[in-house]
Specification:
It is a single chain. The chain contains 13 helices and 13 strands. By secondary structure, the chain is an alpha/beta fold. The strands form two sheets. It has a seven-stranded parallel beta sheet with strand order 3-2-1-4-5-6-7, sandwiched between helices.
Length: 342
Amino acid sequence: MRVGIRCDARPRIGAGHLIRCVALAEELVRRGTEVVFLGEVEGPAWIRAQLDSRGLPLIPAPAPATELAAAARRAGLDAMVIDSYETDPACGRELRRAGLTVLAIVDGDLRGQEADLYLDQNLGAEETATDLPRGAVRLAGAGYVLLRDSVRLLRPVRPRAATRGPARMLCVFGGTDTADAAPAVTRLAAETSAPFRATVVAARAGTVAALAALPLAPGQSVTPIPPTDRLPRLAAGADLAVSAAGSATWELMCLGVPAALIWVAGNQRLGYEATVSRGLTAGLGNPAEYGDPAVRTQAIATLRRLLLDPAERDALARRGHGLIDGRGRERVADALLGHPRR
């Protein structure tokens, strides 16, 4: 079987779609399936390396639905995975007409895309009623979270107990930090006055200088690093991770790392509210609203409590680790490869 994956990674949209599709590709390749990506991959070298290091080919994806279907036929594809908010909704229909099985990865809204299978890995998605095309299969909820080998191989049997002393904090806000959140959230941590040793991924020009200018309290330190593919390993050694809601949320929960989340885009808010309301992560809100004294005060109080209370961090880690078992991609691959061929 030969499967195409239609997704993009660009500075404006981030790398989350690509990361979760790479996880599915790893599982498909492990089962002897050929995989080819269709789309655009731009940004830091580590993003393109997600494909190159795994030997996953990338070819251009025509925008018109009929042309994409024709390209799929030329490539000899049996199925297509679509993970894109920008792809023409007609693509699924045209691909199915061309005889391909179509899996659409969605975040709540189907966006009019016609498919044989729909994957919504958001927490609580299985509890939400969604109208699907006749005969379509829905894979919904945290049991279908797609995680890469680099995360799955580091999953501990149980979360590591929190260390005493200054908390080791990892701050990462997506592969490209599209909202420039790193300086704003690190400033928030500094205002807690709690001791910490922070490693901050500086994904944007000017972030290093902005971090260096932050006034730090005694016992606080900030070390900026460039974007890297070593984040799962860095996270596994952290006492607390501060991240944008998205693919990284599931990685942190699988690794048993307590997480405090922000949201910076509408599509992130669904996952943010679902995990925070269930006590699986802590919530720091939207940095764009930190100008509101009440919002800022609440976020500072939440972060200070996490930095100073190992027991609270342990509780978050246990709950998240118990929910995400790392086998979601196996369940998705079972459904895709086992779906009747057209």
